[in-house]
Specification:
By secondary structure, this protein is of the alpha/beta class. About 50% of the residues lie in helices and about 15% in strands.
Length: about 200
């Protein structure tokens, strides 16, 4: 269940439209951006779970681990198999995009992946960086133009903002639920009562 009351500027109508899955049938992409802790990965996984229930194949990967795995796969002969897995999935989720600038090998691998997926599958990317900053992450103008052309122009965008939902103060908007201060006060009162 998605909490639409959380202060993260989630477009409820757009998210419900995405949950219906038409973007997957149309091979469109989704770019989810926003600061740390606003629920980018959680929302993406919720859409992935719905996609699986609707019969789509999904592959989830955190970008830093994916690039490390691709590098190893080049050396141990698994690259072709891993590449097929990434390209053939109906939905490929690339989580935590943009934490580091891409190396030459990472740029080439990403270009091949997005080229083969273009028009054949959907790609969902989460990032703390706004889309406008992604060119610098790719770090080479020709590759950046080619990669982003295949990812951005047919993409829906969810630009989230707000405090981290991992912070209990930010997520506790229900006045009936006890805050951490209330729980501490209750524990302290209970301890004092037990001593009497």
């Amino acid at each position: 269940d998605v909490d639409y009351r959380a202060a993260r500027r989630l477009d409820k109508a757009l998210f419900q439209q995405l949950a219906a899955g038409r973007w997957l049938a149309d091979h469109r992409n989704l770019l989810v951006t926003g600061p740390c802790g606003v629920g980018k990965s959680w929302l993406s996984c919720a859409l992935a779970q719905k996609a699986c229930r609707d019969g789509y194949t999904v592959h989830y990967a955190r970008v830093p681990r994916l690039f490390a795995d691709l590098e190893l796969a080049h050396g141990d002969g698994r690259f072709a198999k891993l590449f097929r897995t990434l390209v053939k999935a109906d939905l490929l989720i690339l989580d935590d995009w943009g934490l580091e600038r891409l190396s030459a090998g990472q740029r080439r691998d990403l270009m091949e992946i997005v080229e083969d997926r273009y028009g054949a599958g959907s790609t969902l990317i989460t990032s703390q960086l706004p889309v406008e900053a992604w060119h610098a992450v790719i770090d080479e103008p020709t590759f950046a133009d080619a990669i982003l052309d295949r990812l951005v122009h047919n993409a829906y965008r969810l630009a989230l903002d707000g405090p981290s939902m991992r912070d209990p103060k930010a997520t506790n908007s229900d006045p009936q639920l006890p805050t951490s201060e209330d729980r501490t006060a209750t524990v302290t009162k209970s301890a004092k009562a037990a001593k009497k």
